[in-house]
Amino acid sequence: MRTRGDSRRVFLCGVAAAALLAGSSLGSATAGGGRSAAGPDVSEDSLRGHLSFLASDLLEGRDTPSRGLDLAAEYLAAQFRRAGLEAPIEGGYFQIANWKMQEPGREGFSLSITTGGKSTRVGVEHVGLGSGPAASVENAPAAIVNTRQGLDVAQLPEELKDRVVVAEAAPVPADRTERFQAIRRRQEFAAAAQKKGAVGLIFVQRSGVPLRGVGRLVNPESPPPPAPTGGGLPQLTVVDPELNAWYDEAAAQESRISFSLPATAERPVVLKNVVGVLRGSDPVLKNSYVMVSAHYDHVGMREGAGDQIYNGANDDGSGTVGVIELASALSRLPARPKRTIVFVAFFGEEKGLLGSRWYGAHPVFPLKDTVAQVNLEQIGRTDSSEGPQVNRAGLTGYDYSEVGKILSEAGQATGVTVYHHPMNSDAFFNRSDNASLAEVGIPAHTLCTAFVYPDYHQPGDHWEKIDYANMARVVRTVARGLEILGNRPEAPAWSETNPRASRYLAAWKKLRAAQ
Length: 515
Ligand SMILES: [Zn+2]
Prior knowledge:
Layout: H1 44-54, H2 67-83, E1 94-103, E2 110-115, E3 118-121, E4 127-129, E5 135-145, E6 164-168, H3 176-195, E7 200-204, E8 216-218, E9 235-238, H4 241-249, E10 255-261, E11 265-278, E12 289-295, H5 313-331, E13 340-346, H6 354-361, E14 370-376, E15 383-384, E16 387-388, E17 392-395, H7 403-414, E18 417-419, H8 424-427, H9 434-439, E19 444-448, H10 468-487, H11 502-513
Parallel strand pairs: 5-6, 6-7, 7-9, 12-13, 12-14, 14-19, 17-18
Antiparallel strand pairs: 1-8, 1-11, 2-3, 2-10, 4-9, 5-10, 11-13, 15-16, 17-19
Helix pairs in contact: 1-5, 1-10, 2-5, 5-10, 7-10
The protein binds zinc ion.
């Protein structure tokens, strides 16, 4: 989830052990079922065990796509298999999305600079390239621009026709906002140079990692428009001591530059939603579905000093292991829910809800028969930026559908207050994977413990910082909620009166009308 929080004071509510799971079949202790009086097979140790692997450095922050993400997918499938879930996709748990990755091409790159009869070649290992079409320049005169005090378009000479501009640029900072501003300054500089007739631009960067264009995931069913860098002016960044020296000394002399920049390269990538099923026990209701989900990706690794791995333990390793634990707990119930429970871990949430949108476009089970989705996000950390959140869970779109009340009812049995956050329940509704399914009409919500927390999208989001005792109570609450949703004869409905729910209600009516 992406966040901006208020500073509302929160209270802690105690929990009476005797109230735990009262009246729930999840709470009934059965011999050999591994249940305690405190609930079903939701154990702190189990949650900790799963998360310490999924958020380990080995998985390198589970970027989409990455080997770390593939390892996580395989682990999820193994846990679904262990829980005895049905594998609904041709006998497997993977819903495959064959996408493409567009990245700056490096094959065939060359750059040479000639000054006073002496030629220097710069190797591709010193170079950061952007995305765009192939471009080349033969023996163009260089325009060396002094930007040592900072990139400033006022430093550009009036006449740059057919010249290659060479300018110094500071390394791009790691901080997201500063990074964005630095990149924008470079692009403005490039646009101004192009306007004056330049045919190429070389940024001399004295230290750090050369700025590179980022890879772009492409869904073949909805390809984005091509995105050339710098308004189309061919450009590159060089970090090379030899070029620094040349930049400092060559200004007085005539230099000529030749380069060949490869076009953006495209490679196939295989992305996976992981889907497992607990078949319902009722002959009729088993043909309707309750989904519980989380995203198993995070933001991967970033270049910079210190810890470079963004482990994403709370976001959303916590939701992911919640789904694993729910699969295990619900599949061991003496009486299965009447409706079928669908467990899903989505790829690509951090890149724009990609996996859940893919599911919405390629539903494994009919959307019209999917009665609700409970999505789990950030359910491990209780040290919210708004103060401690013990025995509390916020729900997005709380009053948009009946699911809010149902989860609150579940929380009464487990001692967890499922609440409507005065600001964030609305503000976060479209920021996680519930949004993809709400769009098509399914009452879909995201449950979290902390909307905002100190290590959000930082390398310090580590598994050791999770409150596992509280997380176990939250997961038990969800288990109870799924049980209610799974056994309830009526499907939960969108609110007819809340204007914020009206577009989802309209989508739901359309979905129902189509059957
Ligand atoms: Zn998230």
